[in-house]
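Sample intake sheet
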Amino acid sequence: MLGSILTDIDDIRAHEDLLARGRTIHATADGILIKHHRYDQVRFDDFVRALAASPLPSFTLRPLPTHEGASEAAPSLGERVTLRNVFGYLDARLDEKTLIVADVGEALFAAADLRVHRTAEFLSPAYYTSMGFAVPAALGAGLADPSLRVIVLVGDGAFQMTGTELSTCLRYGQSPVVIVLNNRGYSTEREILDGTFNDVQEWQYEQVCDLIGGGTGHRIATYGDLTSALDMALKDTGRIHVLNVLLDPADRSPAMVRLAHRLAKRMSPTSAKR
């Protein structure tokens, strides 16, 4: 691990097997840790240069899996919106002029199969202490490359933390498309440990544009609502669009469920005693 700062993965003990001391080389500007030994006097840049020059073993590159296009029929326009049809339709609309910024949680897990068309057109934080990353990051991404249209994927809980940064986007002429995955709470945490503490106050997210004084809001309940709103948003490149996507709170992506169940086992009282 070069330059990695371990933060919340320490807190949830998710790294115990993969990143256990004794199995890693962890190099940062603060010091070099090799298995159980620490070398504070070795400079990080010297270590990296020496590592690059070392005759390390090489491995045969494995080909990436091919993407299989969706073979199922498109949902009817009146069908209830779901994670599956949201991301299926979004995938079909991505091109070389779009950039995805995904927040942590279901916004990231459900986006795992999206196909971006150029390098660095998918941005996301890695861990939960960065929740609320996506909307502010849209501002930076839009200023960094004005030729790209930023599409934000964010859960309702994360949006309530930092979503009002859309005001700053408006002020500086940015026009992201913000897709709020509104499942009325923290769905990943519900899979780890369910309870009313995972609920959030319901907002009328499509009305945030009225609050900040610019942009267009959409309330999305059906697949037809989704297709018309997303098509309009992508064509209207000069304005912010916020899509309040009304999901069933029980709607989950398989990737999120797998991870949450593994974390739930690690965080159980039985696991903590070991």
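Comment: The chain has twelve helices and nine strands. Strands lie at 25-28, 31-34, 37-39, 98-102, 122-123, 149-155, 177-182, 216-220, 241-246.
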